Amino acid sequence: MSIANDNGVYKGIDIYSNNKQEIRRRFALLALNPLYRIDTDSFDPQYTKIQTTDYRIEVYFGCANDGLRTTAPQRLKWFEISGKNLIFFQMDADIEKHSGCCQNQNVDCPEVVRYTWVDNPECHLLNGFGLSAGSFRTECWPELTGRGK
User: Fold this and answer.
1) Which residue has the higher pLDDT, 43 or 87?
2) Where are the domains of the chain?
């Protein structure tokens, strides 16, 4: 699977990308990397784990050997965090080499992170090879999924 959520036109005008060349490049990386052992991140940055402190939550990514970057003009957008109360707050995040750091003064003990968990978001989180991170959520609460009882 190749992520292309950063390649459409934002704001619901047209969700289909005009840049078909980039889509083909991403699929070629997926096909050629295992075959020719090309040493690149052929997969998009993928959420692996989170680590929390009092007011801060750090999200770690795999498939980001050359680190993470953003195409956003300032800070990374479209992150949401929540504590146990299931109330999410949208906020910006800072990028460190292989992680994104989130905090919001409205969330005392953050437990959950969501990234681009909305319809047609602007996606700015990329690995060093220019592949976009897909939408993800870190929670698996029984209250939301109906599982775990």
Assistant:
1) 87
2) 44-145
